[in-house]
Structure formats: structure tokens, C-alpha cells
Write a structure and sequence with these properties.
- InterPro entries: DUF1653-like_dom, DUF1653-like_dom_sf.
- This is DUF1653 domain-containing protein.
- It comes from Alteromonas gilva.
- The protein is mostly beta strands and 75 residues long.
- The chain has 1 helix and 7 strands, in the order ββββαβββ.
- The radius of gyration is 13 Å and the shape is globular.
- The mean pLDDT is 93.
Length: 75
């Protein structure tokens, strides 16, 4: 569904994707991830939003781009 690893947000910051969880009430898929900066707290975002494209300067780009399965220390 979504490969765990390091992703770059279209605005430039890197994030570690832990995996995909299922919401207990409505069974939607949620991406569990953490920023590779700051306090590195866990966050969730709907899978559909995580994988969607956004418009930047009139062109479509991935909201998050997969960089690889690097460990956070190598990013």
C-alpha cells in the first residue's frame, strides 16, 4: 500500500513513514509518520491525502515523495 521509509514533503522537510494504520471506527487508512526535525512526535494523516498531488506554481506534484528506506540518521 505505502512503503515505509523516508519521504520529502513538497515544501522540503523530510519525514519517516512508520506504516499505515486502520481507524477503529470507520476503517479508513491513516499514515503514521514523524518529522525528521523538531520533537519528532508521531502524526497521522489520511492515506488518500498523503498520496495525493498538489498544485505548485501551476503544476501537479506529489505531496510526499519517497526518498528511500534510509534510516533517519542518514537523511
Amino acid at each position: 500500500m505505502l512503503t515505509p521509509g523516508v519521504y520529502q514533503h513538497y515544501k522540503g522537510n523530510n519525514y519517516e513513514v512508520i506504516g499505515v494504520a486502520t481507524h477503529s471506527e470507520d476503517e479508513t487508512s491513516l499514515v503514521v509518520y514523524r518529522p525528521l526535525y523538531g520533537d519528532r512526535a508521531l502524526w497521522v494523516r489520511p492515506l488518500s491525502m498523503f498520496t495525493e498531488e498538489v498544485k505548485v506554481n501551476g503544476r501537479s506534484v506529489a505531496r510526499f515523495r519517497y526518498l528511500g528506506d534510509k534510516t533517519p540518521q542518514t537523511v
